[in-house]
Amino acid sequence: MSSKSPKSPLLLARCAQTAIAAAAILDVFRAIELRNHYLHPTRQSLHTSGMVSMVFVYAMTLAIVLFLVWLARARHNAHLLTPQASLPSRGWTIGVWFVPLVNFFAPRQVLLDIGRASSVSWQETRDRTVVNLWWAAWLGHGLALWTAGRIDPASIPLVALAEAFMIAAAALAGTLIERITALQGAALGTPAPLSPVAQS
């Protein structure tokens, strides 16, 4: 098999899913500890919130890296599976996440394009809905955090809303990774992930 041959991103998918789930859970603990420190600032609360925040940053960084590596591999496979598909370049697949304003809408389109090019089994209505929900949850998380920072960092409703969006975004991201990986695995003749999403 040549270096340009498509390879199922199953291992990358599993690593990315695990890292994303871990980061989402750690974000909940981080939010709780930061709120506790904001309400009852002590040396101990400062230390605890600082440690949890540091671990979260490491976990989130790892999750981002693994997700982007998986995304690049999925884009590569999609291009080889459907050469005529309209796909972003390899650089732009990653770059869209870091360009101000563009990163409010372009990443959603990248996922849609990769999904559509991965297999004729892509179900436009259902799968596009999952992409839209994932992106709405991710943007909602950022908006809720920004609002809490501007109004009241200790607001239970705002903190809870932000974390609910974070958990939802993580779960939906995992679902999308599973779906696209399963589609590409089937197209490449490799075993698909054994899950309801993959089997649907």
TrEMBL record:
Residue span, DUF4328 domain: 48-181
InterPro entries reported for this sequence: DUF4328
Keyword Cytoplasm among record annotations: no
Keyword terms, alphabetized: Membrane, Transmembrane, Transmembrane helix
Transmembrane segments: 55-72, 130-148, 154-177
Domain of life, source organism: Bacteria
Protein's UniProt name: DUF4328 domain-containing protein
Species per Swiss-Prot/TrEMBL record: Actinacidiphila glaucinigra
